[in-house]
Amino acid sequence: MPPTPRPVGLSRRGFLGATAVTLAATACAPSTGGGSAPSTGGRLRAAFAGGGAQEVLDPHQVSLFVDAARAKALYDKLADQGSDMAVVPRLAESWEPGPDLTTWRVRLREATFHDGSPVRAADVLYSYARILDPEQGHRAKSDLAPIDIEASHAVDERTIEFVLHHPFAEFSNILAAFGAYIVPEGATQFDTPVGSGPFSFVSFEPGRNFVVRRFDDYWEGAPRLDELEIVVSNEESARINALLGGQVDYAHDISATTARAQQGEDSVNLVSSPNSNMMGFAMKLDRPPFDDLRVRQAMFALCDRRELVDTVLSGEGSVGNDLFGKGFKYYAADIAQRERDLDTARRLLREAGAENLPVTLETADVAAGFPEAASVFADQMRAAGIDATVNQRNPDTYWADTLDGGHLSVNRSGAMPIGSHISQRLLSDSPTNVTKWQREEFDALYTKLQSTADETERAGYYERMQRQLHEEGGYLIWGFANWIVATGAQVRGVEQAPANTLDWARFDKVWLE
Amino acid sequence: MWRYAARRVGFGGIQILAVALLAFALVEALPGDAAVALAADDPDPRTIARIRERMGLDQPVTVRFWEWLTGLFRADLGTSLVSGRPVTDILAAALAPTLTLAAIALALLLPLAVGLGVLAALREGGAVDRAITSASVSLYSVPEFALAIVLVAVFALQLGWLPPTAVGVSSLLAQPAVLVLPLVVLLARPICSISRLVRAGMIEALGSDYVEHAHRLGLSGRRVRYAHALPNALAPAAAQISRTTDWLLGGVVVEAVFVIPGLGTELVNAVAARDIPVIQGLALLFAMTTVAVNLAADLVAFRLAPRTEVVA
Amino acid sequence: MNAPPSPSHLSSGQAARPPRPGPVRDVVAVVLVAVPLGLALLGPLVAGAAPERTQPFLPDAGWLGSDFVGRDVWRQVLLGGWSIIATALCATVLAYLVGAPIGLAAAMTRRRWVDEALLRPLDILLALPSLLLMLLLASIAPPTAWTVVGIVALINLPDVARIVRAGALEVARRTSVEAMWLQGESRVAIAVVFIGRAVLRTLAADAGVRVVGAFYLVAAASFLGVGTGPDTSDWAVMVDVNRDGIFLTPWGVLVPAMLLVALSMGLNLLFDRLLSRRRHEEHTL
Description:
Order of helices and strands of chain B: HHHHHHHHHHHHH
Organism (chain A): Salinactinospora qingdaonensis
Number of strands of chain B: 0
Family (chain A): Belongs to the bacterial solute-binding protein 5 family.
Number of strands of chain C: 0
Keywords (chain A): Signal, Transport
Protein name (chain A): ABC transporter substrate-binding protein
Domain Solute-binding protein family (chain A): 87-406
Oligomer: heterotrimer
Distance between the termini of chain B: 11 Å
Radius of gyration of chain C: 22 Å
């Protein structure tokens, strides 16, 4: 699961909060620098929020965005997600299923680690076994769960045969899972990490800075930069100040407010990537009042999504339709967009005998826009006659607390394939089933989907599952936030991409003018 | 004086241990633990249980505290639950920038605050006094982040005289320019408060029988002021500086705004991560500093003005 | 954020003679206090219904623009004074209610161990970094206004006890009190009637700045996320939550901050004034 920036440091409200002056003009500009040929050399400094002395370089323990950015510079995965969540081959050249989708044969491309040794099947098997180690709580463990690592084996130096516990048609999603990086066989310490990524390690001070240099033998061609330095700054205002003062060239995770204040500045380019962050509310279906379908539908009807996007996201985003993955592969875009309908909401509440229904909305200052979303939605519920209270919780334990506690909570999710969203959150035995959506026929559909090789047929299953969720589900997904980074005017080659996808924080394609 | 000092040191030791115990108890009482914090938005109960086991959090509280306490006597503060690094290394890394900043701030604070306080006291009721007094009251009331925003906007971004942050600077002393704005913000409130204190003490001392007596003895005004009145005026100021040290060490806002990876930042991170050994180490460090500075300040006050009642 | 340096820095408790009072100064002081206080007390009555939310930090919304969730800043200013003033006052009063008796008792006792038993636990509190105390208490306690009151009072407690003790000790050693002892006056009578009255002056000098300190501790608590539902209207909280938009529309930060600064300055001037009058009376008596 892509990470939330763990609540590090101070105010995390930064991200969302200004008016909807559109950033489109500045947003799309910087990918190619007016046709001039990319130059090489130089050191790029990028500022991210971090986790202080708690930070580690172990790529299987990534948790924060800065961890992921560092892992990405040093390591490679077998595959990665493109901006629409379609899988793009990386270290894997190809993957072919066996007849019943329970075995997959992966062919590796020719690549070398920073120490000159080749990337071999044994390294891949070691890395996956390490992630799946039951003693550890490694991030990609649940994504890799379908793999039977004992039975998987190397066919030759560059070919692996993966054996799965059950058929899994979307096997490539596993290869692209967040944190599924390939480390050399036997690697246990990561003080001086060796990977196969575009940059090789120079130095690391936890919570401060991280320096890597160009790896000339990178399989995809050497990066243009000589060196990359990642520095840590938890305050968003400090990141933008450092950028304006020329102390850094790239500032990750910029608020819409800041973006608006910096608009028109020649020295700053803003790169705003749509559909990056799902924003929603999670209703729990296994307890009152949301065990009653009419109450859930009343909530769907009373929600003014436009107002939420305009105020909470400052217009830097788009409205949602109670379904995850807008703009992604298999998203059911044909389902009609829900609009606010207060009369219907009131009628449904009346029918359910739930007028003046007391509802407590859980929130915490755990991610951008959370307190704001709670404040705005509480007012919207009140307008429909619901007696809404906002409960501000402790941010450090919010996710664990709201997994089982309360009945309505503010929720978010980073970008991931729709299939992963379903398997992690919407099956009866999903580890983080916050809405308690537990339906046997839905589980069965998913199993059938993953045993179906034909893509059109799979798309059909996705459509049916999403219709069910749209009609009766517990996620009220009101919007999708853009992800904004700011760069200095001299920086070229920064692409729009949702956080944690292939082109996000991808510094090997970036150059300085 | 020496007996007094010995008693104070002894009590200081007890104080520090009590702080350690209190901090441990408070952290234990926090909702959630390091495993929950690490799992973040992926709170799979099985994962959390595994992490908890790996961190040794499944051990009883008493066992963990005892292990920590016995480690203390071997000068071993344990390792971070999250990163596995020794707590002493983490403290040393975070201490350097904070100490640099605090030491310079203290070195500037005393002459500035005393100078302003004395100046105001000698011109009591005059224009200078009024200017200093009103400026200090109003500056004291300005939130420090507001001051920081204004200073950065003007001196770093508009005029470009100073760097806006200390981001990526490995040693603060290597690039002293990055220290200027943090120091100004850090010093604003203590200067106001201590100069007021010095002013009050000075006026009180100048009006006392003791100083009048010195005048009658024919001592020069200058001598009376600086050799007799000033030490008496400094005593309460010295006794209060310990609270300022606490303030200087834990300057989270200044550290965040100017990107200085010091003790305050580390404490906030450690609490968010529920990394008990690190929190304990920091609490110990803070307590030791506070106790030491308190002791030094009381001894100084004792020397400056033995007649002052020092709360022993 | 950290607890600001103890407000006792501002006035040591040994009341110094403030600059000579003048009529202009009095008027200024009264205005400085009256404007924020009036807004705080009358604001909620005249605030009226909430207008539609707009986009956040919109300078044209209302006459002070909109805040971080698109609410009218002026309305939030009207609503937000009461709670901060009440919280700061409650916390200060609570600190005195608990701290003053401890300090008095410690000063009055003739037994050293009682003195120690009363003050040592507070010294330990003093050695616990206020930042840590705040962070931890903020995480443990439910995020309500009373939690903030409690935390702020607790942080002030050791200071209050020490100041009261120091003030009382000076009086208690005076010959007149010694004489009362010898005459067999009851301990309570001495404490309350004589020493208590003398200590009041110290407290008056201390109270002004302590309330000001409390304002900023409340703001600090907000910074650490305690006592602040997103629906809260509170000047100190406004200063914190609206700072992201300071370059778009500054009023959400500036107006509440200026009101707090005015109130702080005014209170200090008034307490100084009060003090000098008392002093004056004493001298003429």
